[in-house]
Amino acid sequence: MSFFALVENSDRRIHVQVARQIARKILSGELKENQKIPCETDLCEAFGVSRTALRESTKLLSAKGLIESKPKVGTRICPRGEWHFLDPQFLEWIQDLEDIKPFLAQFLGLRKAIEPEACALAAKNATAEQRKALSNYFQCMTVAANEFDYERWGINDLLFHQTIFVATGNQFYVPFSNILSSIFKPFIDYSAMGGRFCMAEHQAIYDAIMSGNSEQARIASRALLDDGNQTLAKVS
Question: Considering only the top CATH level, what class is 14-88?
Answer without folding.
Answer: mainly alpha
